[in-house]
Amino acid sequence: MTTETAVLPETEFTAPRPNTETLRRAYRLMRTADELARLYEENKAVTARYVHATARGHEAIQLAAAFHLGPQDYAAPYYRDDAMLLGMGLTPYELMLQLMAKRDDPFSGGRTYYSHPSLRRAGFPTIPHQSSATGMQAIPATGAAHGLKYLESQGLTAMSNEQLTTADHPIPHSNTKPLVICSIGDGAMTEGEVAEALQMAALHQLPIIYLVQDNDWGISATGREMRAMDAYEFAAGFKGLHRLQFDGADFLASYAGMQQAADYVRQRRGPVLVHAKCPLLGHHTSGVRREWYRGDNLAQHTLQDPLPRFHQQLLALGFAEDELQQLAAEARATVLADYERALAAPNPDPATFADHEFAPAAVTEESGERSPAGADKALMVDAALHAVDDILRDFPEALFYGQDVGGELGGVFREAALLAKKYGDARVFNTPIQEAYIVGSTAGMSAVGAKAIVEIQFADYVWPGLNQLVEELSKSCYLSNGQFPVQSLIRIPVGAYGGGGPYHSGSIESTLLTIRGIKVVYPSNAADMKGLMRAAFLDPNPVIMLEHKGLYWSKVAGTEDAKTVEPAAGYVLPLGKAAVAQEAAPDKLRNGETCVVITYGMGVHWAKTASRQFPGQVEILDLRTLNPLDWEAVQAAVRRHGKALVLTEEPLLNSFAESLAGRIQRHCFRQLDAPVFTLGAANLPAIALNVELEKQMLPNSEKVAGVLNELLAY
């Protein structure tokens, strides 16, 4: 075994041989995994209806890893880890329910692939939802470890002994502090997001094991084609990441190595990377047949099959051949019986197909004081700062991080000013330039009970984080059948003004609104900012709050109304509720001389300024939340006036605004007295730096007034 650490002196860890019962259980489960793979191949007309992969060749390291996990731990398996799931205590029947996409699949209710687990069950390690585990899982898993460390620092993780031990899952350690294990293939280690995860784990000394199962293949690509070094060599560059390397096809070596890794993490609270070499004996997946490309390589890998090796080791340790054959027979009988049960199990009810898009909202009604007597008006940026301050004060499980929000600066817009000094660097801290980690880590934070508020510095920087947003956050509630909604508040400054240029001026709502399973909030004034911020934090789902930079300080002409009386601490405003920001005059409305502008953010203020040319004729509906959309308020406003303008700062072509206009025309056609008008930015790929070019591209009050004149005269 090879070990190395870049920090802290080496400590001797004892690794006694597993006891007789553990060896017996390991052999029975290794046989069970083998029988599963065999049965799936023999019945592939049924079992390969949906894609799957199996653990064949990887059983030894997977079982060894599982045997060192307890109910206080968190696991992020990858799609080949069915033996690890067996080692945790899952049954072949439960795995087959997922294989066949059955109703009672305990992980997803038939919604996702085999060996893609999500599990909250007493006595078992917690397995948060993750995507298909080709590197992306490293960030949420590291976020879970980050959350554990944070909660420990706040004294929020005390557990009773009853929570830490059960009869079926004894923990083989006296020190039972929780850890996270992230299982991953060596090919996925080349993903850039994995480097972000390793960087943060080493930087913050997080309690996580990265278990790299290296079989030298990534579908049909070999290791020498995919990488300049293996995972063990790669990890050497991360100072503070302890490394272990051993034979993952040898159960005894794997058990000792995983015990050393677990002991290190539990005692040191720092990260370990385990590099375990394994043969690949099965197909990459059921849809990619090994005979198409493996050639003689398969015969070479078969020589390292962990099952016959373990069999011989057990004979040498005094087990009788008859006993081992009996264990093998029990495994086969269990698998065959479970297969028949799974075949007969019911399919999901089609009527449930839409369940669990979101977890139920925590805030459904406005509450608290919106306009306290004697309160001063506040800028939007200050309302945001005070909202986060209130949250950190009221919820010890809350933390806030992103680029430049910690330390002295407190955000490039000073929207986090002095929070790090007030609450400490464990709660408010800077991250590297790692948008993927900033976004994706919140999924892991949520799974362990930490509640993250994070910030992307500018909307134009969000794109590296979209992979995590789409695959890890947005799908989690739905694909885990409601077990793992992700509580995540992501703040993103957006919008253009005064020459911000192409990388600091973008509007991104239309892109975000194509992602199902997230909520998008866009306040236009300080009071809404404060109320929506708290509601977004309390919401159990991923929420993105878009904050227009041009409204932060009300310095832009026409944005004076963004500054409002500041609501009292604790004020909440439910997501999905639009507001009439300006009413039309009743007499104008009766005479059919009015229209409604449906907008949000800066558009509210352009519309207010423009409407002065049409006294009493323009109602302004401020959407405030773009998803969920207050469709009832939109329809009511359109039917009230018969004429509507949908106004946005985004380039108009294929935008949310155009989509909404089309929806209005479809559902309100009979009440319309004119086509639904739209106005947005020019359809260009970026906003130019020169302020005159910027002005030409963007909407403004003058352009809005021109469109209103045409609409009202229609």
From TrEMBL:
GO function terms (MF aspect):
branched-chain 2-oxo acid dehydrogenase activity
- The reply to whether Oxidoreductase figures as a keyword in the UniProt entry is yes
The EC designation for this entry is 1.2.4.4
Q: Which UniProt keywords apply?
A: Oxidoreductase, Thiamine pyrophosphate
Kindly list the cofactors needed: thiamine diphosphate
Q: Matching SMART domains, A to Z?
A: Transket_pyr
Q: Which Pfam families match?
A: E1_dh, Transket_pyr, Transketolase_C
Residues forming the Transketolase-like pyrimidine-binding domain are: 378-554
- What GO terms describe the biological role, i.e. biological process, of this protein? branched-chain amino acid catabolic process; response to nutrient
Relate the protein's function as given in its record. E1 component of the 2-oxoglutarate dehydrogenase (OGDH) complex which catalyzes the decarboxylation of 2-oxoglutarate, the first step in the conversion of 2-oxoglutarate to succinyl-CoA and CO(2).
- PANTHER family assigned to the protein according to its UniProt record, in alphabetical order: 2-OXOISOVALERATE DEHYDROGENASE SUBUNIT BETA, MITOCHONDRIAL, 2-OXOISOVALERATE DEHYDROGENASE SUBUNIT BETA-RELATED
What's this protein's name? 3-methyl-2-oxobutanoate dehydrogenase (2-methylpropanoyl-transferring)
